[in-house]
Amino acid sequence: MPQTQMTRRSWFQSMLAPAAFAAFNAVRTDAAAIGPNDNLKVTKIESFVLKNTWVFVKISTDAGITGWGEMLKDDAKACAAGALEVSDYLVGQDPRKVAHHWQAIHRGAFYRGGPIKTAISSGIDQALWDITGKAYGVPVYKLMGGPTRDRVRVYGTVSNVTGVNAIKVGPRGSRSPFKYNEGPKFVDEVAERFKALREKVGMGVDIGVDFHGAVQPPTALSLMKALEPHRPWFYEEIIQALNVQLMADLAKKTHIPIATGERIFTKWGFREILEKGAAMILQPDICYAGGITELKVIAGMAEAYYAPLAPHNPQGPCSLAASLQLAASIPNFMIQERGDNEYSDLLAKPLPPVRNGHRPILTEPGLGITIDENKLMAQVGEPRPYRTAYDSDDGSVVDW
């Protein structure tokens, strides 16, 4: 670090009243001890693919501040390579111009959108917000107008210890529903299993049903009607989101709210969902719908339709932390998926624990977490191969 810069910072600090400086310095990390007007430049972008297919991106700066983000867990190698290609643009830039960089990366590509391109933007966006929060010594939600709440409701595993009282299950009978039009025997199996679960956990537990886009429309409609008497909390991804109009048509045939979003990207994708009434609950994934910057916009659009966000999260600690920062800065947040995961195998310090079904908002600077690089590097390796599912009766390919 240049000596002239250190001298100027030392002078700035010496001019502050001792009590005020102590309060100001208390919220800073060692790496982030720079003034708000000091120069800061990106020096390096690195990406890491884990054996479980999670993809991380790390952005370094000339002040020793690093930022972390996550990207799409499928097509892991493509995402990791794509993040490195952004180096030509981002190295040498001030990382705190986050919205500007989002636009430059998105609009600098001739072919825009889609899972891989948007995932690259998403991971980099998270890392830039992480750096920016650390540079200013505050959590990201404070840079985005928050807090809008004190704690974040989560769902995952029902527990008397954590107080989690919301779960999500698939519509299973003796197998998964993959036939184009399942018969009444199978539909009744699914309904009976769900009824048994409802009776076991009671009405005090919210149960979402995730069709995972793997159910064909005639079967989806039969299952939706059969499950209604047992009070599902929502139906998720009742069909593939590629045909939004069909999803909207099915949504009109049930009083149970429809949720979708894990395979939808950017504000432009969610615009059609909202305009056509295809879902009442939006589930964008912060790792491949556009990052923190874009999910903030999507939340604003959704608010105009009185639609809440329940962010999708099948991934790691950056995904959760970034989603929690978003939850703390928007008014129309509903619940966080897999918010009860602890990720101790990747973090240097524990997350604040879940209590009464809620996780406290993260108050450390940036995303609010610290990645343990030694732990992360121990998990780097060849990702799992593609998964393909087949109908056991005739060998045809089915959704999963």
Q: From the coordinates shown, what is the CATH architecture of the domain at 143-367?
A: Alpha-Beta Barrel
| Low-confidence spans | 1-30
Mean pLDDT, to the nearest integer, reads 92
Rg over CA atoms? 22 Å
Characterize the biggest β-sheet: 5 strands, parallel
| Amount of beta strand | 5-15%
Strand order of the largest sheet: 5-6-7-8-9
Under the CATH scheme, which class of the domain at 143-367? Alpha Beta
Spell out the helices and strands N to C.
Answer: HHEEEHHHHHEEHEHEHEHEHHEEHEE
Label the overall shape: globular
The count of strands amounts to: 13
Distance between the first and last residues' Cα = 52 Å
Helix/strand-derived class?
alpha/beta
Walkthrough of the structure:
The protein has 14 helices and 13 strands. It has a domain at 143-367: TIM Barrel, CATH 3.20.20. The strands form 4 sheets. It has a 5-stranded parallel β-sheet, with no helix packed on it. Strands 1-2-3 form a 3-stranded antiparallel β-sheet. The chain has a 3-stranded mixed β-sheet with strand order 10-4-11, with helices on one face. It has 400 residues and is α/β, with parallel strands linked by helices. The chain is 38% helix and 13% strand.
In short:
This protein has 400 residues and is an alpha/beta fold. The chain has helices at residues 3-15, 18-26, 76-85, 87-90, 98-107, 115-136, 140-143, 184-201, 217-227, 244-251, 266-276, 291-304, 317-327, 373-377; strands at 42-49, 55-61, 66-71, 151-155, 166-169, 206-210, 234-236, 258-260, 281-282, 336-337, 358-360, 389-390, 397-398.
